[in-house]
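step=encode ok
step=design start
structure_in=
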């Protein structure tokens, strides 16, 4: 607001305080979360800006806040027989159709295609659309309920999507992605592997060291016994070169 004084002082507010999940800094307009634990999806916040003049002027706008839930266990995959670039261009319409037929809010988690399948097939390309549905309380709808509703509304969904893509469309339920491990779990697994490898290496070192010391001790003992028996009239005594002293004695007697 280019005005000065109270006429240039703008305060921000959430209209009707329509949600308990967010709040707004009245001086800066910064929106922050209050409590979104266990919730996800898109929240539509109506924000009002008002100056403080005698005849206050106001303006409103809608702010869309999306709480990501890509690690949710309620992700459902919708497989469309359309190229991914076409689906991405029309993803807003796909979302609209799904919300209209499912009667829930729909959050698009990801859109992707399986390149290997695309190269292996000569018929039609496929695109995978990962979605999560939310009820009016912004709570996730269980995946089994979403799949059931998708099956019930499959013909209606395909008919609406045909208008969007201007071609025949099939919408099937794909396999849900495996739940991704949390960073904490991944770190714990990596640390466990490192510790296990370190422990194994330590055991190998200890075993090899014990064997080396045992072998060295045995060699030293044999050497000491050989040295202690050197010069004794023992028919089985051996010299340092490994020859029997009895043979040397016999040869000396013959001479």
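sequence_out=
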């Amino acid at each position: 607001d280019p005005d000065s004084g109270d006429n240039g002082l703008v305060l921000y507010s959430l209209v009707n305080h329509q949600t308990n999940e967010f709040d707004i800094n009245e001086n800066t307009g910064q929106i922050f979360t209050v409590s979104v634990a266990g919730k996800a999806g898109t929240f539509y916040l109506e924000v009002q800006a008002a100056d403080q003049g005698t005849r206050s002027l106001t303006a409103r706008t809608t702010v869309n806040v999306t709480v990501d839930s890509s690690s949710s266990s309620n992700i459902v995959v919708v497989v469309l027989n359309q190229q991914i670039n076409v689906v991405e261009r029309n993803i807003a319409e796909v979302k609209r159709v799904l919300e209209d037929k499912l009667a829930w809010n729909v959050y698009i988690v990801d859109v992707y295609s399986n390149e290997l399948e695309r190269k292996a097939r000569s018929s039609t390309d496929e695109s995978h659309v990962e979605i999560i549905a939310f009820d009016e309380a912004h709570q996730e709808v269980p995946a089994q309920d979403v799949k059931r509703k998708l099956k019930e509304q499959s013909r209606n969904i395909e008919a609406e999507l045909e208008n969007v893509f201007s071609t025949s469309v099939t919408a099937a339920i794909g396999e849900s992605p495996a739940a991704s491990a949390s960073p904490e779990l991944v770190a714990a697994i990596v640390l466990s592997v490192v510790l296990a490898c370190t422990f194994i290496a330590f055991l190998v070192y200890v075993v090899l060291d014990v064997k080396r010391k045992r072998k060295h001790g045995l060699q030293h003992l044999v050497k000491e016994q050989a040295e202690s028996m050197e010069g004794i009239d023992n028919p089985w005594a051996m010299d340092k070169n490994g020859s029997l002293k009895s043979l040397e004695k016999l040869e000396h007697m013959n001479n």
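step=design ok
step=annotate ok -> Strands lie at 10-14, 22-24, 31-33, 41-51, 58-67, 76-80, 105-112, 127-134, 171-174.
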